[in-house]
Amino acid sequence: MKDLINDKMPIVQQISFLSAQAAEKGLKKEWLSLFDKNAFIQDPVGKSPLDPLGKGHKGIKAIETFWDNVIGPGNIKFIVRESYPCETECANVATITNSLDDGRKLDTDLVILYQINKKNKILSIKAYWKYEDGT
CA 66, CA 50: separation in Å to the nearest integer? Predict the structure, then answer.
């Protein structure tokens, strides 16, 4: 991911790539530093075993718990195939590969929407994918 980031890219696109890069490398502190304290994550959007009520994770404490339960235990690799930055939002079309301890690899195709505020902090991440496809 780092090779893809450059200062000519819109800032929202840079931040979306930095988020993916931090998740790939297991850099919890760096990942959390990208968020506004009142940020919101839905990953995936809607009800799933990761979010049984389908209401998402709001606020930095809930986002940290999401990291601890979902991102941190994983061994993930992002491949962003397409990226569409517009103003303060960016839509990335990607595949995430999660390498499991038993040697299996799970590929999940998704669209991830990022929104940032005027301080260039992430306000929201919405990831569109079917939970059944990622298990």
Answer: 9
